Amino acid sequence: MLTLLLLIVLTSLYIFAKRHYSKWERLGFESDKAAIPLGSMAKVFHKERSFGLVLSDIYYKCHEKVVGIYLFFRPALLIRDAELARQILTSDFNSFHDRGFYVDEKHDPMSANLFTMEGQSWRSLRMKLTPSFSSGKLKGMFDTVDDVADKLISHLAEKLEDGKSHTLEIKSILTTYAIDIIGSVIFGLEIDSFSQPNNEFRVLSDRLFNNPKPSMLEGLRNLTNFMCPPIAKILSRLGAKDPVTYRLRDIVKRTIEFREEKGVVRKDLLQLFIQLRNTGKISDDSDKVWKKIESTAENLKAMSIDMIASNAFLFYVAGSETTSATISFTIYELAMYPEILKKAQNEVDEVLRKHNLKPEGRLTYEAIQDLKYLDLCVMETTRKYPGLPFLNRHCTQTFKIPDSKLTIENGTSIIIPIFGIHRDAKYFPNPTDYRPERFAEDSKDYNPVAYMPFGEGPRHCIAQRMGVMNSKIALAKILANFYIQPMPRKEVEFKFHTAPVLVPVNGLNVGLSKRW
Predict the structure, then answer these.
(1) What is the rounded CA–CA span in Å between residue 14 and residue 17?
(2) What is the side-by-side strand order in the sheet with 413-416?
(3) DSSP E strands, 455-508
């Protein structure tokens, strides 16, 4: 009897699994072959290939505009057509306005930020935060970033003080630069991780991104945040919260309380968050925003400490890796293309002369804006190495696919494989070549519809301009002060990593020497 019951249960599970993993074929979609119970993610599970690269592999081996995949047990649709992807992100945004990530604002406030929030809550927060990244605000924060860049240049100069060329692993060095920018501009801290690598903020950063032994509960929680938000919510209620994020919240709380108590004003993003918390809005681009702290009763605060900390944490996670990757991949590619390197370096030299600036001195916001060819380099880098190799959306109302009989049902997860699209010769001729000129106004040798490194539409990266500014400041100072040694062309190999980013095998090694 027990054997029969067990046989019935196993048979039922098998039938259910076969039906579950044949959903897309039954609905008429081309489908990636799914392995039960890993779906399309077998190589991710076995740590052979990162999530973003697996999505890119599916992009290239399939043929239809929309392909059914399985994120382990979660069905999703992969968009293989750039025009349809852009339509989903922009003109049909109302059908895809959420991301489908775990968020529990009431019981886990550190999960609620501009990336994860949904519907009206997201719209309201986006509207409040948008003024933080205006030209005037970025100009006000410029000197704070420039200070961090000066520490970067001093650190490199020390490593090259003998005047000879040395091969440096630039990715790790530029990760320190990016983390210090986040600590200075977003968390409002006075830090220098180049000279004090064991400061509290850097130690927490290393634990967050390089935790060698996460607990099984932490690993499961990180996986389910995206793969299965309802399970993530249950795990959170059971106490599976990331202790690092809450320690970062404590840093934010201490800093805000200190500034309000002492009347300290600093030109950084945290200052704007404090103003939003105390007054309900961020003022215009006049200098008044940096003059004083206007406080109000606690019960009238427009933004909680948790909300500020959660969004500071978001900009930290999103900004530190993308900034360091953009700078280091640019330097790596310039080393392999001497003619492009010479053009970029000449432009930096000319702009410094035009603005009466010295290579070893401070930069200005206006000078950075004049570096037009460097803009093209950053565009080409983020094309070839997008900071996030995929975008995701959640269908919020049934959507009929144009020129097709197929329909995307409400509740379906949508994946847009940016890495695959950006390296498709159909959209970008000779995609493995590094050619900044493809983005020049007089050539435009690419399909603009397919270029989406920061997303598109209402949920595009709100801090895009800050990220580009931070990258250009470091690149300009490096080009002004150091020679980048030419090296043979070699495509970057990427290793498996649990984070959804492109991590090069053995880092990025480039030869540098001092110019002056």
Answers:
(1) 5
(2) 30-31, 66-71, 74-79, 413-416, 391-394
(3) 482-484
